[in-house]
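>> Question from a student workshop board

For tomorrow's exercise we were told to take the sequence and the ligand below, predict the bound structure, and bring the output to class. My setup keeps failing. Could a helper post the expected result so I can at least see what it should look like? The ligand is DL6.
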Amino acid sequence: GMQCEDDRTGIGVETLKRAFLDNLFYVQGKFPALATKHDYYMALAYTVRDRLLQRWVNTAAIYTQQGSRTVAYLSAEFLMGPHLGNNLINLGIYNQVQQAMTELKLDLKELLAKEEEPGLGNGGLGRLAACYLDSLASLEIPTLGYGIRYEFGIFDQLIRNGWQVEKTDKWLRYGNPWEIARPEWAVSVKFGGRTEAHKNAQGRYRVRWIPHKVVLGIPYDTPILGYKVNTANTLRLWKAEAPESFDFEAFNRGNYYGAVDQKVTSENLTKVLYPNDETYEGKQLRLEQQYFFVSCALQDMLRIMLRQKLPLEQFHEKFAVQLNDTHPAIAVAELMRLLLDEHDMDWEPAWEITQKTFGYTNHTLLPEALEKWSLKLFSSLLPRHLEIIYEINWRFLEQVRHKFGTDEGRIGRLSLIDENDGKFVRMAHLACVGSHKINGVAALHSELLQKTTLLDFYEFFPEKFTNITNGVTPRRWIVLSNPKLTNLITSCIGDNWIKHLEDVQRIETYAEDPGFQQEWQQIKRENKVNVAEILLDRTGVKVDPDSLFDIQVKRIHQYKRQHLNILHAITLYNQIKQNPNLDITPRTLIFAGKAAPGYYIAKLIIKLINSVAEVVNKDPDIGDRLKVVFLPDYNVKNSQPIYPAADLSEQISTAGKEASGTGNMKFAMNGALTIGTLDGTNIEIRNAVGAENFFLFGLTTEDVGALRLTGYRPREYYKENPQLKQAIDQIASGYFSHGDRSLFKPLVDLLLDKDPFMLMADYQPYIDCQQQVSQTYRDRDRWLQMSILNTARMGKFSSDRAIREYCQQIWKVQPVPVQLAA
Ligand code: DL6
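>> Workshop helper replied:
Here is what the output should look like for this input. Compare the format with yours to find the bug.
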């Protein structure tokens, strides 16, 4: 053995066992006979953490020493998923740890399952931030992720009687071994009050902000290790606390309850994540959260600059700050305030620094998602920022007039203030004006941004606009989730593909190799058996692993059209009922996803899926030919077994609505074929894998626009299509709701009268395309070849490629390799 290995850093099996038992004793305070599974998980987590800390501290030392240019990724959401498994992969010690646990008569899988995931995000946007942190560290780019340490993340979803029920996510209940509090770096954040003028030392007028309240921000740091490198970056999440000194002594002397009340109010700020995906909520607390973490982050960056003795004029040279959507867009005004009011800088240099500092990523075209804050709320919470925004706007609109003359329509459309229907601050406009680059997240999305939502900005400064197509990390989404496929690929082409996903292309030569196909099929089957066990355990539904696994997992939203998928399920059901001997390709339809708690129609869609499932699954005429299952509580942890088990990936949003999609990438990388519309990155996936290896259907973005213009009449499709009519009539008549005709009426009426997402128009093309899928699945060799080619050609969709593009086009940052000090 490796006798000389340090117990905190060594990676030999004997060392790992010793370190693990030591942590069980000295961290958990247990000996094996009393230890619970959770104690063992914690002991292992601390064992891994020790190995991370060695890299983390070295990384910090090198960044400080070299004064490295740093990416600051500002995001209200980081949907990290469980850390343990990912850290084992990135440290390269998964196998050693597995062996160590086995020798201690423990099962690594069971310990991994004990980790509560930090669900600090809603969906794609938060998960993208997590993939990007993995790639940034793997590419050795100095990075700080800044966000909010929500005490309660996205709710846990229960299904009761077919309905979604939300349960508080108490993820911190048993402690979090992955974070370290840094109270020594706490900052103060002001809210409310008023501003006043005063003279500075040079006798020049400056503005002072006298707030109504002050909240403390405490940073909690989590190390983010790259794959097989020594770089460990930092995710710095802020928790709100009451300051000891402010209201406590000055205002509440002798008023103990008042003081405690103040504490409770302050801490409410970071209590809970807003569970809305794609709709903003004009709630005061949400704006407070946004300003809170942004101010904490910028103050923290200023502290780092001062510590490194860098002049503030170099802020944009030290930091490239990315705004993950408009949630952190208030940063534009906050950096201006800090430079002007707290560091006595003049407007022009402060504005130049600000614009050079920020980049803005837009993640949606849906109008209901565009954030705007009423002037009333904004001025009461951030009076100084409103003054600054007025000044930015005034100067900006002067430039607009200079370029385009007095075109009041254009000026009204570009203004940072919306005066159409009440007065609002438009956060996307603030982000555009305050950034030097603006990007969409897929080619189509970036094009539509320039042609529609941000057209006026595109006309004013076209050079700011660019596209960076999203990507996902192959470490979590292939290596960790699909170890069997990983081993097969690596046994053929070596393991370079894990860092350079373009290399998986090399498995193309095996696409028609019978031996390879046989192994490929075997792995898919084992992954399906695994999911079949999970489904049985969580839902009681038994499914056939030899059926076609047809999967749609994502947030529930009308534009994503889970209800179109359900119309297909009903159609298949009716076909079998009409012809009981029908020789159809057996299918298992799997759904999962959360609905925003206040999104009534989305919740009704969940109820519909479960209601159809109930009828279909217990019908003896149907047997194993069709099953419909809704897997509750979709999150990162529960999703990891899903992608590797899919035969078919459902990406069926109305064209023009899904900015990118990232689940589509996870599926295709794991060998699922896609049925999809020409939307988001489906288009780019289809181009990459080849049109012949992709099931395309439906209206294009242009078709959707044209159909709207000429007058869309959804009821006509219903009247003229007997299969569609039968399916809709069954829903309406209570066939799936024990005769209750009122239950699904809102959904049926919506589809027949307005159908804003054009399910009626896309129904028959979808059904026909699904028929093609079923046919193709029967040709085993053809399907396997298509599946292999999908994986082989997905190289572009690694988040490493996306991050390289951000580094070159937007951030202008270079890798900073880290060596471990001897
Ligand atoms: O860019 C990540 C992700 C895309 O893949 C999805 O298509 C898009 O819907 C999602 N956007 C949001 C919007 N949230 N806000 N604001 O979550 O971003």
